[in-house]
From TrEMBL:
Name of the protein described by the UniProt record: beta-galactosidase
Enzyme class: hydrolase
Pfam families, alphabetized: Glyco_hydro_42, Glyco_hydro_42M
InterPro entries noted in UniProt: Beta_galactosidase_Trimer (IPR013738), Class_I_gatase-like (IPR029062), GH (IPR017853), Glyco_hydro_42 (IPR003476), Glyco_hydro_42_N (IPR013529)
Taxonomic path: Bacteria, Pseudomonadati, Verrucomicrobiota, Opitutia, Opitutales
Catalytic activities: Hydrolysis of terminal non-reducing beta-D-galactose residues in beta-D-galactosides
Leader peptide range in chain numbering: none
EC number assigned by the record: 3.2.1.23
GO CC, one annotated term: beta-galactosidase complex
Family under the similarity heading: Belongs to the glycosyl hydrolase 42 family.
């Protein structure tokens, strides 16, 4: 079909809620605050000549628009917006609220962060603001309201974003923040006896008899209250985003919301996968992954269970102290398409002369000389015009889901002496065999999604599983679903206390077993699953005590040959438990057995580091290796990108891509 004169993916006719109604977009991040009017004019001409279709602007400088409290100056940005529209370049309009102006800190010192000792922390770097402070929230609301009312329906605007990288902000230890935390606890627990039980304060003389005895937890605090502190700041972030979303709905409801939020930022963070539908139309994030598999997992994590394609609001062209690698951005852009992407926006157009990112190298060098990277992005833009006629962006309908819980990650990171394999390693290790078999997978919070759409649910090392999650698993299996759970899962409750029931907590009957003992073997564990031998690289294992469960496979190198995989019939479904910690060598043969049982179709067979998807009868191949590879193909095919004919074998160079038909 045709939208705005462009041929787009056929599914676009049913996707008016998608940004661009199904077009692909190649563009850049751009900061007019850094540029003179003459430079802006030249920059836009350069973008247009390069075939770039979209820019993301507005994220860096609130005081560019409001230099003093209540004094708004939009004339310069009006001109930029109008020039973008005249050039046919669309705009992702970011509300730049993550960086409060200096005047705000001066006039409202409560917005300034406080250290653990209560002293003020001068906002020398970006994102240094207390997002729970009511004055900050009020002034951000005012700015966002005026900004969105002015530009939300500008003809150049294609989407709106909120508070860039808010998840990488900071927590404050000020007295007002402490009082807000106490207020949050009162709402959550109601009275002190309930709080004391949730926090296990009977130990070590920690019993709380007055709300004012509560301090803002820090890294040394007990696990229960530390998790509640992280939840408090997560709720503050989510509530702020919901407020900005209400402004968009009021002034620009037809413009989708797609924001580069970095919800897993290490300093603040928030629970994206339990809340994204309240303020996002598309998953979006900054793609800077050096490992393609990790980047693919993060893409799926930001997509959640949304059908809308992902936007890479920032996309690596160079890097911090890294000028770039020829062909790498093009390859990764195609990998983004394979992973359900719709847009790639280079970070950044012109390399910054100052600030924290002056050694992240953009498409233009510091003296405005176009680099070879601009030429590469011209190629990407041209080729994506072809790809959007071939079924891209692709709509994904995964039959498999992997669990991810922000709360569980926070809890697991606190007990590294027990939880020895890092949380994200569990996730990546469960994902790798599926991704290498070229199968689409959703990454979801299982307590907040409809699980019935999936044939297989994988729960890798999910240390904290509260009632919502365990009830969801129980109902899913009872109603006919198949679940695979690995060691270190369902150990603690939503209060971050160990279950006092047989483990896995609240699920022992579903899996037909219990587990108490666990050991770290001095040498690799071995065995065979479905006739395929395995050898572990992570030698931690649990001892499974089966009741109604059937043993599918046993360890062969341990006394007594204890079970490594069990299966239990529960209701109409099956619950499979893996005694080893999550790792590809154990999961791959199990997955491949389940493909056949569950009717899950494996994707094209490819060598290591090469990924492929079938889209509208054609196959997209992406070689992420830095070496050439040869791929077996059926019969004779034509390369859409290269124009070459291939028979029996496809040769892809380093970072090479091809579409065969």
């Amino acid at each position: 079909m045709t939208v705005g004169g462009l041929n787009v993916s056929p599914q676009a006719k049913n996707r008016a809620d998608w940004a661009g109604q199904g077009q692909l977009f190649v563009g850049v991040n751009y900061q007019p605050v850094d540029r003179s009017p003459g430079q802006i004019k030249l920059d836009i001409a350069c973008m247009k000549k390069a075939g770039l279709q979209v820019v993301r602007m507005g994220d860096l400088s609130w005081d560019y628009y409001e230099p003093r409290n209540g004094e708004f100056t939009f004339e310069a940005f009006d001109s930029v917006m109008d020039q973008m529209q005249a050039a046919g370049i669309k705009v992702v309009l970011d509300i730049g609220g993550s960086i409060a102006p200096q005047w705000l800190h001066q006039e409202y010192p409560g917005a300034t962060l406080a250290k653990e000792d209560g002293t003020a922390l001068y906002p020398a770097r970006r994102y240094m603001v207390d997002i729970s402070n009511p004055d900050y929230r009020r002034l951000l609301h005012r700015f966002a309201d005026i900004f969105t009312r002015r530009y939300g329906n500008h003809p150049a605007v294609i989407a709106i974003g909120y508070n860039n990288e808010m998840g990488n902000g900071y927590r404050s230890f000020s007295e007002p923040a402490r009082q807000r935390f106490i207020g949050w606890l009162k709402v959550k627990y109601g009275d002190l006896p309930v709080l004391n039980k949730a926090w296990a304060t009977q130990r070590w003389s920690r019993n709380i008899t007055d709300w004012d005895q509560i301090r803002m937890p820090d890294g040394s605090s007990p696990n229960e209250r530390y998790l509640d502190m992280r939840r408090f700041w997560s709720d503050a972030a989510i509530n702020l985003l919901k407020d900005l979303e209400s402004i968009r709905q009021n002034h620009a409801p037809s413009k989708p919301a797609l924001s580069n939020l970095w919800p897993d930022g290490p300093r603040l963070g928030f629970d994206w996968l339990s809340s994204y539908r309240q303020y996002a139309t598309h998953g979006a994030f900054g793609y800077y992954a050096t490992n393609p598999l990790h980047g693919a997992f993060e893409t799926m994590m930001m997509k959640g269970a949304m059908s809308a394609p992902v936007w890479f609001n920032e996309f690596q062209a160079g890097g911090d102290g890294f000028y770039g690698e020829k062909g790498r951005s093009r390859m990764l852009s195609y990998l983004g398409l394979l992973n359900g992407g719709q847009a790639v926006l280079a970070w950044t157009f012109n390399s910054h002369l100052g600030g924290e990112e002056q050694t992240i190298f953009g498409l233009l060098d510091h003296d405005d000389t176009p680099s070879w990277k601009l030429d590469e992005w011209i190629v990407i833009s041209s080729e994506f015009q072809t790809m959007q006629k071939l079924g891209f962006p692709r709509e994904m309908n995964p039959e498999i889901a992997i669990s991810y819980s922000w709360e569980s990650r926070q809890a697991a990171d606190r007990v590294k002496s027990y939880y020895t394999t890092p949380y994200m390693d569990h996730k990546h290790n469960s994902y790798a065999p599926l991704y290498n078999d070229n199968i689409d997978v959703d990454v979801i919070n299982i307590g907040h999604e409809n699980l019935s759409r999936y044939k297989l649910l994988v729960i890798p090392g999910e240390y904290l599983m509260g009632k919502a999650a365990t009830d969801a698993v129980r109902n899913y299996v009872r109603d006919g679903g198949t679940v695979v759970m690995t060691a270190s899962s369902a150990k603690v409750t939503e209060n971050n206390q160990w279950y006092n029931t047989p483990l896995p907590g609240n699920l022992s009957d579903v899996f037909g077993l219990k587990t108490h003992e666990f050991y770290n073997n001095p040498s690799p564990l071995t065995g065979a699953i479905n006739g395929v031998e395995f050898k572990t690289s992570i030698n931690f294992h649990e001892v499974l005590e089966a009741s109604t469960a059937e043993v599918l496979a046993r360890f062969s190198g341990i006394e007594g040959s204890p079970p490594v995989v069990t299966v239990n019939r529960f209701g109409k479904g099956k619950a499979i438990y893996v005694a080893a910690q999550t790792q590809p060598s154990v999961l791959q043969p199990l997955y491949r057995q389940l493909y056949q049982e569950l009717g899950i179709k494996r994707g094209p067979v490819t060598p290591e580091g090469v990924y492929a998807r079938v889209v509208n009868g054609r196959i997209l191949y992406v070689n992420t290796n830095r070496k050439s590879v040869e791929i077996d193909i059926e019969g004779q095919k034509k390369g859409v990108l290269s124009g070459k004919s291939w028979s029996g074998k496809l040769q892809l160079e380093s970072n090479g891509v091809e579409v065969l038909e």
